[in-house]
Amino acid sequence: MSHTAFIGIGNMGGPMARNLARSGKTVKVFDLSPTAMQVAVDGGAIPSQSAGQATQGAATVITMLPEGKHVKAAYMEDGGIFDHAEPGTLFVDCSTIDVATAREVAAAAKARGFRMIDAPVSGGTVGADAATLTFMVGGDAADLDEARPQLEKMGKLIVHCGGNGNGEAVKICNNMIGGIAMIAVSEAFSLGQRLGVSVEDMQRVIASSSGSCVAVTDYLPLAGPTPKSPANFGYRPGFMTKLMLKDMRLSQLAAVETGQPSPLGAQAAMLYAMAEQEGLGELDFSSIIKLFNKGIA
Ligand code: NAD
Question: Does any ligand 1 atom lie closer than 6 A to the CB of residue 243?
C-alpha cells in the first residue's frame, strides 16, 4: 500500500498526521522544525530528510504550511514535491493561503500530470487533535472522493465547494467572521467588566442570547467559563495572532480584487496588526482582548 507524505507538521499538521497514522495509514513526514518532527514520530509517523524524500513513492501528498509562499516553494521549487512525485499523485493542500496562489499551484500541478485539491480546515488545534475538523474543498469531485477516506480520519465534516481555490475562498470568509467576532466579544466583555459585571454572569447570559458565537460559547478571550480556551493557558496558541492577521489580510486582498466593500474586515485587520506590534503575534489571537482591557483586574 502506498504511503501518504505529510509536509508541515506544526500545531495543526502534527495532530492531523498523528490521527492519520493512528488509523493505520503509513505516513511519512517532513518539517523544518526538529521539535515538530519528534512529536510526529512519537505519534507514529515515519521521519524523512526532506519534502522530496517523503514524497517519493507516495500516492497522496498532504501539505499544512503557513502561507502561500511556503506552499508554492514546497511544491514548485527545484528538488521540491513536483520533482519527486510519481505521475498522477494526488496533492491535498490544507494550508490557509490566498485563492490566487491555490489556483496557480493547482494549475501548475495539472500541467505536470498531477492532481490537486485545496482542503483548508476550521476547528483549530482542538479539532485537529480530536479529528473533528471541517474541510472545505476546492477541486475536482473525483479527486475529493479519492482523498475523502483520509480526510475522514482527520475531520468530521467535508464540504465540496467547487473548483480549485474555492475551499480557500470559503476559509478566508469564515476567518473574517471569526476574527471580527473575537474583537466584538473582547470589546463587549471589557465594557461589561468596567460596568461591574462578572465575566461568568456575562458569559452565561450572552452564550444563550443574540450575542452568542464561538468566541463566547467555547473560546472566550478571558479565563474561566470556557475551560478549553487559550485564555486559561496564558494565551498559548491555539491559533496565533500573526496567523489571524495573515488571514484577515487575505480576505482584504480578495475584497480589493473583487471590489467587495469590507469595512469591518479592514478595521479588524488593522487591530490584529496593532496586536502584533504590541507583542501578541505569537500568542493566541484571542489575546487581542489585551488591547481593550487595560487596567481591568
Ligand atoms: P505552525 O507554524 O504551527 O506549523 C507550520 C509548520 O510548517 C511549522 O512546523 C514549520 O516549521 C513548517 N514549515 C514551514 N515551511 C516549511 C517547509 N518548506 N517544509 C516543511 N515544513 C515547513 O502553523 P499551524 O498553526 O499548524 O498552521 C498551518 C496552517 O493552517 C496555516 O496556513 C494556518 O493559517 C492554518 N490553520 C491554522 C489553524 C490553527 O488553529 N492553528 C486553524 C486552521 C487553519
Answer: yes
Does the beta carbon of 11 sit less than 6 angstroms from any atom of ligand 1?
yes
Look up the pTM and report it. 0.94
Residue 256 reports pLDDT greater than 70: yes
Give the domain ranges of the chain: 3-163, 168-291
- The residue whose grid cell reads 505536470 is 112
Which residue has its alpha carbon closest to ligand 1 atom 34?
A: 96
Tell me, yes or no, if 156 is annotated catalytic. no
Ligand 1 atom closest to Cα of 97?
32
- HSE, CB side, 13 Å, CA atoms: give it for residue 278: 17
CATH class of 3-163: alpha beta
Architecture of domain 168-291: Orthogonal Bundle (1.10)
User: Over the stretch 10-50, which tens digit does the pLDDT of each residue have?
Assistant: 999 999 999 999 999 999 999 999 999 999 999 999 999 99
Give the side-chain half-sphere CA count within 13 A for 261.
1
DSSP 207-232: TTSTT--HHHHT--SSSSSSTTSGGG
Check pocket membership of 96 for ligand 1, CB cut-off 6 A. Answer: yes
Nearest CA to ligand 1 atom 9: 10
The pLDDT-based confidence of 1 (bands split at 50, 70, 90) is: low
